[in-house]
Specification:
Layout: H1 4-12, H2 19-29, H3 32-36, H4 40-43, H5 51-61, H6 66-76, E1 80-81, H7 90-93, E2 102-106, H8 110-113, E3 119-123, H9 130-145, E4 149-152, H10 158-168, E5 173-176, H11 190-198, E6 200-204, H12 216-227, E7 230-233, H13 241-251, E8 255-258, H14 269-276, E9 280-281, H15 286-294, H16 299-302, H17 318-325, E10 328-330, E11 335-336, E12 339-341, H18 342-349, H19 353-365, E13 369-372, E14 376-379
Parallel strand pairs: 3-4, 3-7, 4-5, 5-6, 7-8, 8-9
Antiparallel strand pairs: 1-2, 2-6, 10-11, 12-14, 13-14
């Protein structure tokens, strides 16, 4: 019998089938093995499968043999996870677009993958000031010494400083690459790359030998945000890729922190914008930051919540109750809507999008809501 992992690999080879469609296939059919054997008509029932996509699937699927492909893939890329594997990073799996294949090199720590050890992302500009470098080193060191794993992208600037400071402090770090896990970019980080392999992991959604490409780096930012429980933006101009990571973090319900700077400092403009949009301030008292980060529930703690079937609706905070009330749009008539898109929830509650995202995540963890493709939510 062909393993489910083999079908994740097979579907990932079909052009036009990206992480979002893979997720929809899995949710619609239950398994990708079932989806592989589905008819064209059945596949057409999945959101996003238009005529051209269906034609590609029919043409390419007939030429692929999942078991043979999987064996060959293992030979060329010996270390990878698919969402069918129990070791796949749990937090990343909760996002709307987890990579169908996540390649890795280095030292795996299972507690990180299971969400039982806190991962914090640090991102920022490739051209930081002395102020940004100093604070990145200080915060990375503090995180490492307090048991956090630091996640970044191994780019020049803030990323490099965060990885290096974490390693120097004896901590673990994860680099999310926009290349294959065996391709070092930028080349000046060759020594850092070798150090990361012994003090953590490098991961990527791209197979070995994949060279750098400008389109890869914005996409990999969703993985940094998805793997992390919080994102710290150290310095970022208005058009920085770090703001893309922060946007993903907001969409995924992660906490976002930003380092304040002077209003006339170019590298701080993006951080100041984030602060006006509701990001938390990174202030001089690092103990307060560490306390807030350490207070984020771990997955093993979250799993102690009873399921919706085991309880009546618990007493909720006013903010959480307002979101739950959005699922009954006409309270007087008792008209319930089982599935509601994110923007309609924001409209119904009158709350800020970031606050709604945070509330939705908490309600999901409590077993009261579930997220569907396309940023839609269903009351359980």
């Amino acid at each position: 019998m062909v393993e489910e992992s083999a079908y994740w690999v097979a579907w990932s080879q079909i052009s036009g089938i990206g992480p979002v469609l893979l997720r929809r296939l899995q949710q619609h059919f239950g398994t990708l093995a079932t989806a592989w054997n589905a008819t064209k008509v059945q596949l057409g029932e999945v959101e996003g499968f238009g005529f051209q996509t269906l034609e590609k699937v029919v043409q390419q699927r007939s030429r692929l043999h999942p078991e043979q492909l999987f064996t060959k893939h293992q030979q060329e890329n010996p270390h990878f996870w698919t969402p069918a594997d129990t070791d796949y990073p749990r937090l990343l799996l909760e996002t709307p677009s987890p990579p169908g294949i996540l390649y890795y090199r280095g030292e795996v720590e299972l507690q990180e993958n299971l969400g039982q050890k806190p991962l914090v992302g640090i991102v920022g500009t490739r051209r930081p000031s002395e102020y940004g470098i100093r604070w990145t080193r200080q915060i990375s060191t503090a995180l490492a010494k307090n048991g956090f794993t630091v996640v970044s992208g191994m780019a020049e600037g803030i990323d490099t400083e965060s990885h290096a400071a974490t390693i120097k402090a004896g901590g673990r770090t994860i680099a999310v690459l926009g290349t294959g896990v065996d391709v070092i970019y930028p080349q000046k980080n060759r020594d850092l790359y070798k150090q990361i392999l012994t003090a953590g992991l490098v991961v990527s959604e791209y197979p070995t030998k994949t060279p750098p490409d400008r389109t890869h780096f914005p996409r990999r930012n969703r993985i940094i945000a998805g793997m992390s429980r919080a994102i710290l933006v150290m310095e970022a101009p208005l058009k920085s890729g770090a703001l893309i990571t922060a946007t993903y973090a907001n969409e995924f319900g992660r906490d976002v922190y930003a380092l304040p700077g002077r209003v006339d400092d170019y590298p701080s403009q993006g951080c100041l914008k984030l602060l006006t949009q509701g990001a938390s301030w990174i202030l001089k008292e690092l103990d307060e930051l560490l306390t807030m980060l350490g207070a984020i529930p771990q997955i093993d703690e979250v799993e102690q919540f009873p399921t919706a079937q085991q309880l009546t609706l618990p007493t909720l905070s006013p903010e959480l109750q307002r979101v739950m009330d959005a699922f009954v749009l006409d309270v007087a008539e008792g008209i319930a809507f089982e599935i509601i898109p994110f923007d309609l929830i924001v409209q119904q509650t009158g709350m800020a999008a970031g606050s709604v995202s945070s509330a939705l995540l908490q309600l999901e963890l409590m077993g009261l809501l579930s997220q569907l493709p396309g940023m839609r939510y269903q009351k359980i």
